[in-house]
Amino acid sequence: MALDKDGIAKRIAQELQDRFYVNLGIGIPTLVANYIPEGISVEFQSENGILGMGPFPFSGEEDADLINAGKQTITALNGAVYFDSATSFAMIRGKHVQLTVLGAMEVSENGDIANWKIPGKMVKGMGGAMDLVACAENIIVAMMHTNKKGESKLLKKCSLPLTGVSCVKKIVTNLAVLEVLPKGGFKLIERAPGVSVEEIQLATEGKLLVEGEIPEMKFN
Amino acid sequence: MINKVVANVHEALLGIDDGMTLMLGGFGLCGIPENSIAELVQKGISNLTCISNNAGVDDFGLGLLLQQKQIKKMISSYVGENDEFERQMLNGELEVDLIPQGSLAERCRAGGAGIPAFFTPAGYGTEVAEGKEVRVFNGKPHILEDALTADFAIVKAWKGDAAGNLVYKATARNFNPMMAMAGKITIAEVEELVPVGTLDPNEIHTPGIFVQRIFQGELFEKRIEQRTLRNK
């Protein structure tokens, strides 16, 4: 069965490593914070200016001055620190953040990503996404494999305006875990439980590389 | 000590005129100079170019200036929370320059720091890079981004003193410190104007040299955009 959004987040959480500083984008990526594996310490950075971001506040404890990059009220953990936007992006461009997880509308087989604009229709802006994808060494895209119309989001070439070029290395969808190869192509690494290679192939417009037996994702 | 205190928001905003470029601090509705925005609406100043990470929501923050069509051009990174903005932009009524958030922050910082331009990898290969010089450093292409300055920068701080020293609270700091540096005249709107000597010099975020006028705002609504809670 294909994963739900929490399932995608759970699988991505397995990529977290001890002592990682992590930036989580809006949407599915935010859910990753709920599934940190036991025994490891990570710290979450939100690009509006906090390291050591904690969970959402209890009712009555929310503070208009304390939000995340999605403008949601949050809390700060012990050891947290606030900083200005230039310092925040120095952390990001300077590669001090070890992992970035973000959503996408399209990803191409050479690692291009589009997630900020639909010409003539949706004009929201890129926020920090262009800085994040241009600089992070370790980017995981969290998204559904197909869009609402059922069309593949893993393409030969992105049709929407790009957010960054040749930057995505790993993708976790409701159907599969895939790696973007340096020479191009989506290499199938794992299948969602009960999802066949054929189903993944059908939902992938770009070049899909399947080598040998593809294992199912494992969840505890 | 050079005293920067002005009596009220009206006095603070004297000299702001039609067609000027303003920087306004804040991220979303967090840390925005809401008293100054209300005064700009009341004064009806128009044809403004506003540099601000976001454009408020329909009925608060910079959205109030958009409603009155006082803004000619916005320079921002994310404007997704404002339907009126999207409508004016898609209809060609509003000029918009969308730039990556980190580049926006650094362009303001550079403007205040006397750095005319800098290279960044953000936006390379995208429409943001159109018309910009590209240079390769360490095997990776970067684009040239210009510094930004403004006729007036309007920032919001938690505490400030007569010397113009500012302390921000939590994530309300965001763009305020860089914009404070980049205004030809910088106006600081503070929640609390404290006596000189009470702020610990070790813990001041914006040194008073960057601030020309300071006043205590009368009313802070501090609206929350996304009240997100955890269950007990």
Index terms:
heterodimer, A: 220 residues, alpha/beta, ten-stranded mixed β-sheet, three-stranded mixed β-sheet, 5 helices, 15 strands, 16% helix, globular, B: 232 residues, three-stranded antiparallel β-sheet, 20% helix
| Poorly predicted tracts of residues of chain A | none
Computed structural class of chain A = alpha/beta
Number of strands of chain A: 15
Query: Can you tell me the overall shape of chain A?
Result: globular
Strand order of the largest sheet of chain A: 4-3-2-1-5-10-12-13-14-15
Question: Roughly what is the average pLDDT of chain B, rounded to an integer?
Answer: 96
User: What overall geometry of chain B do the principal axes of the alpha carbons give?
Assistant: globular
Structural Rg of chain A: 17 Å
How many E-type strands of chain B? 11
Radius of gyration of chain B: 18 Å
- Describe the sheet with the most strands of chain A: 10 strands, mixed
Cα separation of the termini of chain B:
50 Å
Explain what you see.
The complex is a heterodimer of chains A (220) and B (232). Chain A has five helices and 15 strands. The longest helix of chain A is centred in the first third of the chain and has 9 residues. In chain B, 20% of the residues lie in helices and 26% in strands. In chain B, strands 1, 2, 3, 4, 8, 9, 10 and 11 form an eight-stranded mixed beta sheet that branches. Chain B is globular and about 50 Å long. Chain B starts with 8 loop residues before the first helix and ends in a 16-residue tail after the last strand.
Helices and strands in order:
The complex is a heterodimer of chains A (220) and B (232).
Chain A: H1 5-13, E1 20-24, H2 28-31, E2 42-46, E3 50-53, E4 76-82, H3 85-93, E5 99-102, E6 106-108, E7 113-114, E8 117-118, E9 122-123, H4 129-135, E10 139-142, E11 154-155, E12 170-172, E13 176-180, E14 186-191, H5 197-202, E15 208-209
Parallel strand pairs in A: 1-2, 1-5, 5-10, 6-11, 10-12, 14-15
Antiparallel strand pairs in A: 2-3, 3-4, 6-7, 8-9, 12-13, 13-14
Chain B: H1 9-12, E1 21-24, H2 34-43, E2 48-51, H3 63-67, E3 71-76, H4 83-90, E4 95-98, H5 101-113, E5 117-120, E6 134-137, E7 140-146, E8 150-160, E9 166-167, H6 176-182, E10 183-193, E11 213-216
